[in-house]
Amino acid sequence: MIRVQSEDFDLGIELQNLTRDNHGIGGLCSFVGLVRDMAGDDDISAMTLEHYPGMTEKALAEIEAEAQGRWPLDGTLIIHRYGRLDPGDQIVLVAAASAHREAAFEACHFLIDWLKTKAPFWKLEDTNEGGKWVDARDSDDAATSKWDKKQPAAE
Amino acid sequence: MKLLYFAWVKEKTGTSNEEYALPDGVTSVAELIDVLKERNSGYSEAFSDHSVIRVAVNQEYVTLEHAVAEGDEIAFFPPVTGG
After folding, report:
1. CATH code: domain of residue B25
2. Between residues 117 and 136 of chain A, which touch chain B (CB distance below 8 Å)?
3. Quick check: ipTM above 0.85?
4. What is the CATH number of the domain that holds A133?
5. Considering only alpha carbons, which residue of chain A is nearest residue B55?
6. What is the value of pTM for the model shown?
7. Region B64-69 average pLDDT
8. Inside any domain, residue B53
9. Number of structural domains found in chain B
10. Residue B7 belongs to some domain of the structure
11. How close does chain A come to B58, measured CA to CA in Å?
């Protein structure tokens, strides 16, 4: 499931909803991204996330479908927020549920790595020197490409 | 066609979206960028370095060699930084 929203989410409720009706699920792995209060030498007082409505949902659905094709998953969830956020706020949740933990761990890791380089979101940080658009990081590209030849987890 | 701009590309062009008539002779994204750069200093600055511009045609990532046609939705933006 994909959700793009400005409002916050309740991690506990979201994860319960993902697994509640399927007792064949033996493992659930989740990742939550949070707004930090510093970046390099800058203090961050707030962050604004911009996105490309339409393409965002499409890109997230493609990422989710890719994970479901690579691992035996019983449930996946991607929630990404946009708009103005404060330090400590939740930005993103990805979760993967499966019969066994390996697929859940790997798919969760894959979802956030691919999301970071493929979903059309941009972060604008409010710093002591004014607004700064966050630069994409080479390490994120490397994190994405490490999945290029990754084999699905053994069941 | 519809042109969309995001993040600092939007700030430099000064607009988030616009209707635009495909100029005669323009068939690729790269050619379209070359024409847009001539409009004013903001566009010129936004597109000064092709290596930091990402392009989506009809909401799919494409390369600069990709074809463009009247009716397309073409978006220009920096490398993404979500998550």
Report:
1. 3.10.20.30
2. 117-124, 133-136
3. yes
4. 3.90.1170.40
5. A120
6. 0.93
7. 97
8. yes
9. 1
10. yes
11. 8
